[in-house]
Amino acid sequence: MKPIAKSSKLASVSYDIRGPVLDKARQMEEEGQKIIKLNIGNTAVFGLTPPDEIVQDMIRNLGDAGGYTDSKGLFAPRKAVVHYTQQKGIKGVTVDDVYLGNGASELIQMSINALVNDGDEILIPAPDFPLYTAVVGLSGGRPVHYRCDEGAGWLPDLADIEAKITPRTRGIMVCNPNNPTGALYPNDLLLGIIELARKHQLVIFVDEIYDKTLYDGVTHTSMASLADDVLFITFNGLSKNYRSCGYRAGWMIVSGEKRHARDYIEGLNMLASLRLCSNTPGQLAIQTALGGHQSIDDLVAPTGRLCRQRDLAYELLTQIPGVSVVKPKAALYMFPRLDPKMYPIADDQQFAYELLAEEKVLIVQGTGFNWPEHDHFRLVFLPNVDDLREAIGRIEHFLAGYRRRHSS
Predict the structure, then answer these.
(1) What pLDDT is recorded for position 13?
(2) CA–CA separation, 207 vs 6, rounded Å?
(3) pLDDT, tens digit, for every residue of 263-284?
(4) How far apart are CA 135 and CA 125, in angstroms?
(5) Do the Cβ atoms of 407 and 344 come closer than 8 Å?
(6) Element holding 159 (H helix, E strand)
(7) Which residues lie in coiled coils (predicted)?
(8) How far apart, in whole angstroms, are the C-alpha atoms of residue 145 and residue 36?
(9) How confident is the model at residue 361 (pLDDT cuts 50, 70, 90)?
């Protein structure tokens, strides 16, 4: 039996569920203070709501949603996911290869838990989405972080990945489009990662939850479409592209080299059965979402709300002395860098705490994403342009005071 999970194993998800910065934010809200939250991609609180056709279809079917479904999910939404994989160029996927879950997060945890034994290693990007690191640790494994290169647009460093592969390495996690950097990976990089997985017989876990949230006319390639001789576990869902975070509707696709993964797939089936099934109302939204009007295209167009907010956030942040940002090509986030010479930050969590206390703006410190230095933070650009301008103005005011206090 695995040991009881210790709180230290959960430290990497503290930006979301616990920690002094969140505790302070809750205290301030209880006191009636209004906080501008740039810390989490919860679309609904910024007025970005699910498409009406999804809502109405769920309402019409809710009377039939009171029972358990098949442990992998209802047939119709799983079939819709198969059609989506065909559109993305992923070959050989059947309904039996699709698992529906309470958001992609549940499925990420399930897929890692089915693979990892005590001491096994999974390669995870740095900066990361903290869930990846947490679930590897909670499964008894060891998360090993490979570095993404800010100077190369936050693309993973293939040499660093290969240098960190050991006999205990079982898989590699890829987040494309990326959270927290907004990077979009080119095909040659994806092929390079696939070659490493092929060479070292690794499972590739690829999180593509932002695959439609793309700017400036760029296109996204599903990694699993590039090879069929490597085992891919691909995650996606409705939370971001369809602004349906609370519906908890996600899916996982097993593709590629499945012949030698029968024991692993059996483990996935067992874990899917143990949780009975994902929530039925959320499942009911998937088919309508994938087959209907893709309203995300309007939001990310040059005149669309998300694109305009991205452009404004980038413009305002890069005007602040000592702040640099790689402009995101995708997703909902930026990961700005603070010049250490101008901002000698020893503890970026304390930095985030002071920003919150003084300016009532909530961001996430870079180390919350397992970035090793204290020189970055993440913000979401989901608020409307007026609120975003106000929030970044407050950050600028705080940084000006920081420079004065720490000038030599």
Answers:
(1) 45
(2) 26
(3) 999 999 999 999 999 999 999 9
(4) 14
(5) no
(6) helix 158-163
(7) none
(8) 31
(9) very high
Query: CB neighbours of 259 closer than 8 A, spacing ≥ 6?
Result: none
What's CA 50's distance to the chain center, in Å? 19
As a whole number of Å, the end-to-end CA separation of the chain is 56
Distance CA 18, CA 231 (A): 35
Angle between helices 385-406 and 305-318 (to 10 degrees): 20
Structure confidence by residue, pLDDT tens digits, 196-246: 999 999 999 999 999 999 999 999 999 999 999 999 999 999 999 999 999
Q: What's the rounded Cα separation, in Å, for the pair 73 and 276?
A: 10
Structure tokens belonging to residue 37: 């939250």
d(CA 82, CA 95): 6
Instruction: Tell me the two tokens of residue 289.
Output: 């979402």
Q: Cβ neighbours of residue 14 under 8 Å, at least 6 residues apart? A: 22, 368
Q: Which letter does DSSP use for residue 340 in this model? A: T
Mean pLDDT, range 26-44, rounded to an integer: 92
Helix, strand and coil content of the chain, in percent to the nearest 5, comes to 45, 15, 35
How far is it, in rounded angstroms, from Cα 170 to Cα 343? 39
Within 13 A of 9's CA, how many CA atoms are on the CB side?
Answer: 14
Residues 6+ apart with CB under 8 A from 142: 119, 120, 121, 122, 136, 168
